[in-house]
Amino acid sequence: MSMGRSIFAILLLVLTQCSVTGQTFHTRSNKALKYYDQGKRDYDLLYYDRAEMNLLHALKEDGRFYEAHLILGQLYSDTGDWEKAVTHYRAAVAVDSLFFIPALYSLGKAELRTGQYFDAAGHLEAYLKQPGINAGMRNEAEKMLANCRFALSFPASLFEKEPVSAGDSVNTVLDEYWPSVTGDGQQLIFTREVKRAAGYGRDYNRDRQEDFYVSRLTPEGYWGTARNAGAPLNTAGNEGAQSISSDGRTMFFTACDRNDGQGRCDIYFSTNDGKRWSPGNNLGQPVNTTYWESQPSISPNGRMLFFVSNRPGGMGGMDIWYSLRGSDGRWGRPVNPGKIINTSGDEFSPFIYFNGRTLYFSSNGRESFGGHDIYVTTMNRDSTWTTPENLGPPVNTPADETGLVIESSGRRAYFSSIRNREMGKDIYYLDLPPQVQPGQVLYFEGAVIDKASGQPITAKYELTDLTWGIDVITSLTDSRGGFFVCLPSGSSYGLNVTADGYMIYSENFDFAEGYTSAEPYRKTIALNKVRKGEFMRMYNVFYDTDSWELLESSMPELRHLLEFLRINNNVVIEIGGHTDSDGSDDHNQKLSEKRAGSVREFLIRMGIDGKRIFTHGYGEASPVADNITPAGKRLNRRTEITILSEGTTK
Questions:
Q1: Statement: residue 203 has pLDDT above 70
Q2: pLDDT beyond 90 at 157
Q3: Contact by Cβ (8 Å): 575, 599
Q4: Rounded to an integer, what distance in angstroms lies between the CA atom of residue 14 and that of residue 19?
Q5: How many other CB atoms are found less than 10 A from the CB of residue 161?
Q6: Is residue 398 classed as helix, strand or coil in its secondary structure?
Q7: Which domains does the chain possess?
Q8: What's the confidence (pLDDT) of residue 255?
Q9: H-helix segments, 96-223
């Protein structure tokens, strides 16, 4: 039973006792009592519209009818119309402040939910001073009082900033919610509640169902007319609460009451081939269970999936969980991050930002401004989480905040809210205060082509964070040879691109500044086919200064070379070592020879026939850039692989 229903049950008991003891209602109007009795019966049967009408008629007959004000206050609380709830609770308390003590509790709660924090604190304090109050309600009142004091610690001016509607091209008289934005900032995908096909599915009592809609950013910077994402992604059932991969090619979403469902609601995924979305596929166990799974959020590298579930093993009702995808593509057993994120209350709508470390979520189990608030936490390098922080106003308000996402700039947040009850839920945005904006994320947009023909190639690309020694992403280009990835600033990255029958492409670069989703770092990567005389520069083979011992950070690159030689199993190669101009010619010559030899020894240890591998040290004799700047010297320090004889390819 909800707290509201509990209060109503207590009120009924009080009124029954009044009748037994002969105490009369707070009215002398028989006509008001007649309307009141009918309204009370309607309310108890959940006929809210009829109850509201009859209770308002009762108050028209007697505006100081205490009991009618009280039940109307509870009715409006139940339906979320907190402004009207405040009006009627205040009217009741003005008539008789101590007849029904829980009225002070209910008034304080309604004032909290409308942002009247000072008044709410006063009424909650008055309630807590009364003797013999219910222990559960005392606990809730203390929490609400703490929330009032928390909210009053912020300047009132912060609450004055109003969000901006996403516009008539997105918002309609229907409900729009759960927005998500692709990494390039060009697509807004959201859920819209539309009229449902008659008699569909198990949820046949509802005349509405959820579909996905897509809006594209116009050159003028406005969202264009939203279009239905269409079949087979959208069905006659419910699809919603989606998460889009940063490249816009994969969607994870929630669907309910499907024949292949494991529980009431499960997590599904779909892919886009550039023309349309595929049918939704159930993610299956261990992510989905017989319990409720919903509201997925996929990390930028596609390896970490956050979602909400009420499965056993959590901290409260609804908890945030996550699953890691292994190298075999399978999702691992979900992990509950524990009480650092989850509470005894409900946690909803996780959103992992484009840096892969900053997590936003909604909770009603923490210090808040009234309802569900948005919080932020950051994953440390050891996979622990920082203490969540309330985003504060203007993001959080007395209303419920859920489903917040932040576009790739880190500046603008999108969310759904009811600002006009006649329009229902709509999508809004606001620009975040600088102090709560996530760290800068930069973007790399690539296209892989055949160097001779210029035609796109489906290739495998891999990005490694060389600073932290972690794999960022491994994936395939799309049908046009393209890829789009987000990369946190402040690191050096290694890029490898491979395709059957082609030479390996290797590069490393620093991402420090200047590349946004609006103007990403763009590069066309032209691959040469494997043939005699072709060479490839391996820029991600590293050694300590003045040493020929291979560093651990070289392993991703060397594994690519190893795989290349295993696939092209008759190719004979030369490993060429090159240095910059620091040091004497003789020293650099010997160093380059030893470095080339170290790569050969690694390949032989891994099973490659030594007869296929020759080495040559070039010292500083063949620079490809200047030997003055650090960038030029870095390009000159390289390992080159040249095809001496072509052989055949498996």
A1: no
A2: no
A3: yes
A4: 9
A5: 12
A6: coil
A7: 3-153 (1.25.40.10), 164-436 (2.120.10.30), 440-529 (2.60.40.10), 532-650 (3.30.1330.60)
A8: 92
A9: 102-113, 117-128, 135-152
